[in-house]
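Hi Y.,

Following your request, here is the sequence exactly as I used it, all 137 residues.
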Amino acid sequence: MYECEDCTDCPLKAKCTKAKGNRQVHWNTVFEEMKAKAKTALECEEKAAIYARRKVEVESVFGHIKGNRSFRRFSLRGLDKVHIEFRIVALAHNILKVAGIRLLLSEKNRKNTKASGEKRAVFLHLLHLGTYQTAPK
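Below is the corresponding structure, written out as tokens. Let me know if you'd prefer a different format.
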């Protein structure tokens, strides 16, 4: 913790702090150590590539669920119930994604006929790439 010596006569005190006494700045040394460790870990190219993939693959799913599906809060309380509720949300997300992929493929099929085995392989590949799975307990 840092505390300035005396700021009672400082003309910027009202902008700097609402405290009656001097301005105090607190920081968590454990958190700072963790941030430094994470920063050094991301300097490794391999870990930076993994983190970059995570931002695209995982964070966009949560953003889509929150922004486009308006799921911002859990209705239930308790970790077990929250896990169940989120699995339902993930299931709904995956079903809507599958429906969109099937619609896309059916539109392509009207224009261009392919062997049914190829269509199924493409569908399963897109399904595998695009679905979200909750982590096991």
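The chain is about 65% helix and 5% strand.

Thanks again,
Q.
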